[in-house]
Amino acid sequence: MGPGDCAGEHQDRLTIMTDSNQTPLLRPPQTGGAATSQPAETSRQIERMIPSRILEISYAFWRSKALMSAVELDVFTTLADNSLDLETLTRRTGIHERGAHDFFDALVALGALWRDADGRYGNQPEFDYYLDRRKPTYLGGLLEHLNARHYQNWGSLTQVLRTGVPPTGGVGTYKALHNGHPMQEIFLSGMTAGSLVSAQALAAKFPWRQFKTMIDVGTAQGGAAVEIACAHPHLTGGGFDLPQVEPVFASYVLKHGLSDRLKFYSGDFFSDPLPTADVLVMGRILHNWDLATKNMLLGKAYRALPPGGALIVYDPLIDDRRADAHALLSSLNMLIETAGGFEYTGADCKEWMRQAGFIEMRTEPLGDMHTAVIARKAL
């Protein structure tokens, strides 16, 4: 059988269709005949399609790594003031000319940059707003954190799935990252950037006028406390974290002119009581720990709040249908990076809060991958 005959037979067996997303599909034709037990005949009845989704997922790390490198090389900060031609952009970012043209055009293809007819490059609006290092909306700290820690740690996923135990060779455990680890600054700035959109949403959605004081538990640099305090000048409070975080917190709060309203509360939430305030915030905290620790922290929060006080918890909650890929993958990230952490549903959290004594539990989407669970302590 010659090449032409093979192609002809293939075309007789398969017809090209498209799905709702216009992805080409190859399906076997309707034969109208009885089913056969022959393996070859059975294979002809099995739906065949171009593996577009498989390929998209398999190569997705190319896209994310290109974006992370662009942040690391300050591409978006370099282009924030003016568009630049290829030669100038290459020189200012320190990229070797061999890969520069393809790299910048790849960022154009990904929708991060634009390129005009004269070959000049500029930032697309979203990337300019969030990835210019000089803007207060800068999210690059999150990408730097993902690049420096998660990208490497996820190389151990198969091992951890087999053992259920995080690797000892992972790039920084949470405890180590607070004890002078070389990546401490990247970790803490990553926590701030990762909570920026959520904190802004909380500042807008929660009824802060009903309260006077607020403490952010596990505050890191103090990003959430700063966003909320900036939006509500009547609030005072601060952040609670390990003693070694205080200089970073103080510097960040001073930079935003809030040192007179936000103070650092030093302690370890495993061994110390939580500070008292009208509202306690636990952002991206509960998911780090096993169920017993989650319940312990909720109990401590309940005891620290005055009657009528409120607790706000936010994490990448798993939806009730377990269909949101980000939250489920985030739970796998907890598997890789912690001894017992996991993501959970809003219903899970409400039940834990109820057991701790809270009332009036409700969920509040925060506009990014996070959802808040809000509860009150009875008067």
From the structure above, extract its key features.
379 residues; Arc Repressor Mutant, subunit A; Rossmann fold; 2 domains; three-stranded antiparallel beta sheet; 45% helix; disordered N terminus
How would you describe this structure to a colleague?
The protein is an alpha/beta fold. It folds into two domains: 58-133, Winged helix-like DNA-binding domain superfamily/Winged helix DNA-binding domain (Arc Repressor Mutant, subunit A); 142-376, 3-Layer(aba) Sandwich (Rossmann fold), CATH 3.40.50. Helix content is 45%, strand content 15%. The chain contains 16 helices and twelve strands. The protein has helices at residues 3-13, 39-45, 52-58, 60-72, 75-78, 86-93, 97-109, 125-131, 140-153, 157-163, 184-205, 223-231, 246-255, 291-304, 325-337, 346-356, and strands spanning 15-18, 24-27, 84-85, 113-115, 120-123, 213-217, 236-241, 262-266, 279-283, 310-315, 359-365, 371-376. The strands form three sheets. The chain has a seven-stranded mixed sheet, sandwiched between helices. Strands 3-5-4 form a three-stranded antiparallel sheet. The longest helix is centred in the middle third of the chain and has 22 residues, at 184-205. Residues 1-36 have low confidence and may be disordered.
